[in-house]
Amino acid sequence: MTTVAWDGKTLAADRRMAGYMTTCKIFPIPGGYVAGAGTMDQLVEVAAWLQEGGDKPRLPDDPESEFIVVRGSEAFWLTWPYLREVRIREPFAALGSGAEYALGALAMGADARTAVAVAAQFDPHTGGGVDAVDIS
């Protein structure tokens, strides 16, 4: 899977994909960014839909992916299976296989980049470096 973290200012994600390959899991969309954890095919489909509009992607009934959308200074979780944006009211959030580690780091005052790096130390599905975007 992966780890994505949001600290209210920065959206960060690890780069590990398929165990040994790396890629960026943060995509620009109109007015913000989307990042996701889980199946890369599902993340790419959701990112393309948010970038281009049109019909919502047809994804499995039992998804393996989770998504955070950041628009301006607000973050949203995409619900399943309808992909509706639900505002995250907490000052920080994390998702993916290393979410618990990242949330612990965020709760102790770490920024999103550091939280993902901490998760990579303990979660075998998180790693390969960290990508991040700062939202102003």
Describe the overall structure.
It is built from three helices and eleven strands; from the N terminus they run E-E-E-E-E-E-H-E-E-E-E-H-H-E. With 136 residues, it is of the alpha+beta class. A hairpin with a 2-residue loop joins strand 7 (66-71) and strand 8 (74-78). The longest helix has 13 residues, at 40-52. The radius of gyration is 14 Å and the shape is globular.
Task: Give the helices and strands, then pairings.
Blueprint: E1 3-6, E2 10-14, E3 16-17, E4 21-22, E5 26-29, E6 32-37, H1 40-52, E7 66-71, E8 74-78, E9 85-87, E10 93-96, H2 99-107, H3 112-122, E11 130-134
Antiparallel strand pairs: 1-2, 1-10, 2-11, 3-4, 5-6, 6-7, 7-8, 8-9
Would you kindly provide a brief summary of this structure?
This protein is α+β, with helices and mostly antiparallel strands and 136 residues long. It contains 3 helices and 11 strands, in the order E-E-E-E-E-E-H-E-E-E-E-H-H-E.
- Shape, principal axes of CA atoms: globular
DSSP helix fraction = 10-25%
In angstroms, what is the radius of gyration?
14 Å
- Measured between the Cα atoms of the first and last residue, the distance is 28 Å
What's the main sheet like? 5 strands, antiparallel
Total number of helices? 3
Coarse structural class: alpha+beta
What percentage of amino acids are in beta strands?
25-35%
- Which series of helices and strands comes N to C? EEEEEEHEEEEHHE
Notable characteristics:
136 residues, alpha+beta, 5-stranded antiparallel β-sheet, 4-stranded antiparallel β-sheet, 34% strand
